[in-house]
């Protein structure tokens, strides 16, 4: 185990609140790999995700007094990472807002049979290739569990734009899944 001493999460948090560098390092080591995975979903590459992770942990350490122990600490950190990643992306990339009024309320679904034949890495690779706005909305809605209202507030878009971008993302994902499945079946047959 990487921890030199065994500390509870509460002890680590308390040490971090007191500004103890060793406790900050241990807390970082405990959560960094999981949170890097969160940041990767919003980044264009690993280096950018690592920058997002660093910015996120700076915020975690600054806002530790805001954590009241309600719910999981890891969940609280995850929310900060999502917000920090989106903020980083918005500052460093020009994001286009795509809204199609005709499809704003439509919900498309991905065929569960086709999706079940793909591995997790295949699905993550397809999601990573989505246009930035679509990818962020999809990740926030489908993976992080945000509502369209929350997504709109965080990203500075309307609730309808969030729904539209999710619908478009699902359409692209569905198309890509069918293409991947078709290639798998062609290579088998």
Structure in words:
The protein contains nine helices and no strands. The protein is mostly helical and 189 residues long. The N and C termini lie far apart (47 Å). About 11% of the residues have low confidence.
Which descriptors apply to this entry?
mainly alpha; 9 helices; single chain; 189 residues
Summarize the structure.
This protein has nine helices and no strands. The protein has 189 residues and is an all-alpha fold.
Number of strands: 0
**Integer average pLDDT:** 82
Order of helices and strands: HHHHHHHHH
Q: What is the molecular shape?
A: elongated
Largest sheet: none
The portion of residues forming beta strands comes to: under 5%
Report how far the terminal alpha carbons are from each other. Answer: 47 Å
Instruction: Classify the helix fraction into a percent range.
Output: 55-70%
Structural class: mainly alpha
Please state the CA-atom Rg, rounded to the nearest Å.
19 Å
**Poorly predicted segments:** 96-116
Number of helices: 9
Topology:
Layout (H helix, E strand, L loop, with lengths): L8 H9 L3 H20 L5 H17 L10 H20 L19 H5 L3 H9 L3 H12 L4 H8 L3 H30 L1
């Amino acid at each position: 185990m990487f921890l030199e001493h065994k500390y509870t999460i509460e002890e680590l948090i308390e040490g971090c609140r007191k500004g103890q560098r060793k406790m900050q390092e241990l807390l970082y080591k405990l959560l960094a790999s999981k949170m890097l995975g969160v940041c990767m979903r919003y980044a264009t590459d690993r280096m950018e995700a690592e920058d997002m992770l660093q910015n996120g942990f700076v915020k975690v350490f600054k806002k530790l007094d805001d954590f009241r122990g309600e719910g999981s600490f890891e969940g609280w950190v995850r929310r900060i990472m999502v917000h920090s990643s989106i903020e980083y992306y918005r500052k460093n990339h020009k994001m286009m807002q795509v809204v199609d009024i005709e499809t704003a309320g439509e919900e498309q679904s991905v065929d569960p049979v086709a999706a079940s034949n793909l591995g997790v890495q295949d699905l993550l690779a397809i999601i990573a290739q989505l246009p930035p706005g679509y990818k962020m909305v999809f990740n926030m809605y489908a993976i992080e569990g945000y509502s369209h209202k929350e997504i709109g507030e965080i990203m500075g878009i309307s609730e309808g734009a969030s729904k539209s971008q999710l619908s478009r993302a699902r359409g692209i994902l569905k198309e890509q899944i069918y293409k991947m499945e078709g290639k798998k079946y062609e290579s088998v047959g």
